[in-house]
Amino acid sequence: MKNSIAISSLIVERFVRMEKQEHKSHQKPSAGAKFKKKKEKKEKKKGIEKQKGNNPKAFIASSRLNQKKRVQRKADLEQKKFHVPMIDRSAIDPPPIFIAVVGPPKVFLKKLIINELINQIIIILIIFK
């Protein structure tokens, strides 16, 4: 009988504790996309306009001399685009008459080099005649 009373009293104590137990309350988001949207919506209702874009003061030159150099360099680069120097690619000397290809025997690379040189010489001869 004593055991049954002790067990029943323990059950009652647990039940009372369970009723008194408080669960964690809901935490509102304080970061993330959803929070940003809600924050912007509240600010919009209040009439506060957020400045979008970069901080304009961060990109001002610290001195007039640096700013002047930067402007001059930008102008020079733009002028360089318009006035591209033309390189004379015409051959100054004719191709050599004798060509020696040296290497170990039975290597296909020598034959390939000789054939390519012959093709290049033929192309040059056709262009200049």
Q: What does this entry show, briefly?
A:
The chain has 129 residues and is an all-alpha fold.
Explain what this protein looks like in three dimensions.
By secondary structure, this protein is mainly alpha-helical. The protein contains 4 helices and no strands. The mean pLDDT is 80.
Oligomerization? single chain
> How far apart lie the N and C ends?
126 Å
Beta fraction: under 5%
N-to-C series of helices and strands: HHHH
Provide the fold topology.
Blueprint: H1 2-20, H2 33-46, H3 64-82, H4 108-128
Keywords:
single chain, 129 residues, mainly alpha, 4 helices, elongated
